[in-house]
């Protein structure tokens, strides 16, 4: 699986650092929604779903977390621990966000509005959706 990450340009001066995110520039789609999660409780993992069409970029703007990506062939764990790093997640990718630091703020930019019908929340259904046989069907 090819993991796509971005190193956003930092505009730094004696006052500090500023990062600008622009659709179809350093974010590879039209940004239609932004959401973020924080105060994630110790030991909590989130996600456990794939999207049929949604594309997103995840940025841990404070603290750190790890994201497990699974395309049905292989799994990879990506660490997000700096605000200038973005992780692109294509559709048809199972994701789990985990190992949140106490201070983590995970921001997500998405190319579509919230639509529950775009979620695949069952792992076997995800495998079938991408044309793979769940083990229990084998
Ligand atoms: C994803 C990962 C990275 C809304 O009302 N609007 C929204 O835009 C979103 C994202 C969520 N919600 C509601 C739906 C649930 O009642 O917020 C609640 C928590 O959502 P969910 O359990 O889906 O959150 P995560 O952290 O498991 O997943 C989220 C996104 O939903 C998902 O698209 O890829 O972050």
Concise structural overview:
The chain is built from one helix and twelve strands, in the order E-E-E-E-E-E-E-E-E-E-E-E-H.
Description:
The structure is a single chain. The protein has one helix at 123-129, and strands at 4-7, 11-13, 16-18, 33-38, 46-51, 56-62, 65-70, 75-80, 85-89, 94-98, 105-110, 119-120. The strands form three sheets. The protein has a five-stranded antiparallel sheet with strand order 1-9-6-11-4, with no helix packed on it. Strands 8-7-10-5-12 form a five-stranded antiparallel sheet. The protein is 5% helix and 43% strand. The chain is mainly β and 138 residues long. The chain has a single domain, classed as Jelly Rolls, CATH 2.60.120.10. The mean pLDDT is 97. It starts with a strand and ends in a 9-residue tail after the last helix. Bound molecules: dTDP-4-keto-6-deoxyglucose (T46).
């Amino acid at each position: 699986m090819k993991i796509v990450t971005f190193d956003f340009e930092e505009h730094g001066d004696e006052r500090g650092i500023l990062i600008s995110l622009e659709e179809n520039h350093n974010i590879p789609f039209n940004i239609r929604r932004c959401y973020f999660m924080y105060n994630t409780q110790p030991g909590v993992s989130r996600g456990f779903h794939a999207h049929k069409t949604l594309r997103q970029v995840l940025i841990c703007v404070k603290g750190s977390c790890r994201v497990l990506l699974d395309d049905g062939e292989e799994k990879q764990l990506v660490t997000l621990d700096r605000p200038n790093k973005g992780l692109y997640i294509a559709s048809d990718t199972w994701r789990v966000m985990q190992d949140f630091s106490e201070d983590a703020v995970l921001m997500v930019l998405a190319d579509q509005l919230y639509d529950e019908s775009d979620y695949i929340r069952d792992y076997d259904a995800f495998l079938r959706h991408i044309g793979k046989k769940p083990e229990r069907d084998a």
